[in-house]
Design brief:
Elements (H helix, E strand, L loop, with lengths): L6 H13 L2 H8 L3 H15 L4 E3 L4 E3 L1 H24 L6 E7 L1 H6 L1 H11 L3 E7 L2 H9 L5 E6 L8 E12 L11 E5 L5 H13 L3 E6 L3 H9 L5 E4 L8 E3 L10 E8 L5 H15 L2
Parallel strand pairs: 3-4, 3-5, 7-8
Antiparallel strand pairs: 1-2, 5-11, 6-9, 6-10, 6-11
């Protein structure tokens, strides 16, 4: 006989993988920890495999669990899309989303397009700004949801939905003289990438100077392409006609950056649907 997997169990498993913790998964799903544990036992029994190794500090997904997680994400995405289109055709309202411009330009178009297709009566108000401004405006009640840049270890809060390495980027026109201050193309203060680059150079004892400041991603990329200096970008945001400078060439390692999602409370039904969609789309690729 063919085995039918319970979508509810798959959602619990995916939420544990997302949060990395049974307790946090229970809080998000509004279930106690014993219920979460029982659901995982049922799912492992259904598939006949151990899906995660658990210790007091963390949950580690096994190889079998990673395989199941990939399918679970797709099943849940189809399930949620179907529910949205069939059982909630009249879901309507306005959702206010704040986001950094570079992230909105690179990663959000397809994410928001899919949401708009599933919820055509929901109006999206998307505002781009610098992270610290986004946080202030979120706390002032201007946004339902806000995507912010944050350090991997920090106190800004939110749910991590994206992580990737930061790199130094330049064009083939750039001239980097090891004996001269490094020319930087940066966003205005405050900017997480600007701060990270300057602090890394200071720790490495490498002198620098600000050569060009621009508040837009397109303007900064144009300045770098013109050879005015080097900049700091997430690896996936480096244009094809720019060069990633290897840290072995005398520039310090910048490590990873994170994007986290801040969520207002209480949250309207349309905003809650967008929150679920963003987390699922970004954190699970």
């Amino acid at each position: 006989m063919q085995q039918n997997l319970d979508v509810d169990l798959l959602r619990t498993f995916a939420t544990i993988a997302e949060t990395g913790n049974f307790t946090r998964a229970g809080e998000r799903l509004r279930r106690n920890q014993s219920t979460i544990s029982l659901q995982m036992k049922r799912l492992e029994g259904a598939v006949g495999a151990t899906l995660m190794d658990r210790n007091p500090r963390q949950v580690r997904i096994t190889a079998e669990g990673e395989l199941l997680l990939d399918y679970a994400k797709r099943i849940l995405a189809l399930n949620d899309e179907l529910v949205s289109r069939v059982s909630e055709p009249q879901l309507r309202g306005v959702v206010r989303l704040g986001t950094p411009e570079d992230f909105a330009t690179t990663h959000l178009p397809q994410v928001l397009s899919r949401f708009a297709q599933s919820h055509p009566a929901v109006a999206l108000e998307v505002t781009c700004d610098l992270t610290l401004n986004l946080i202030e405006r979120f706390r002032a009640g201007e946004y339902d949801l806000a995507l912010i840049k944050r350090e991997p270890i920090g106190g800004l809060g939110g749910t991590r939905v994206w992580r990737e390495p930061l790199v130094w980027a330049a064009s083939d026109r750039s001239h980097i003289d090891a004996g001269a201050p490094l020319p930087l193309v940066v966003s205005p203060h405050p900017c997480v990438y600007r701060k990270r680059g300057m602090e890394a150079l200071d720790r490495a004892g490498r002198p620098w100077r600000i050569a060009y400041t621009c508040g837009s991603l397109a303007g900064a990329q144009a300045a770098v392409k013109a050879g005015l200096g080097v900049t700091v970008l997430p690896k996936n945001m480096v244009l094809k006609d720019l060069l990633v400078i290897d840290c072995g060439d005398g520039l310090p390692d910048l490590h990873d950056t994170e994007i986290a999602l801040l969520v207002a409370s209480p949250l309207s039904a349309p905003a809650e649907r967008l929150r679920e969609h963003i987390v699922r789309s970004l954190e699970h690729g």
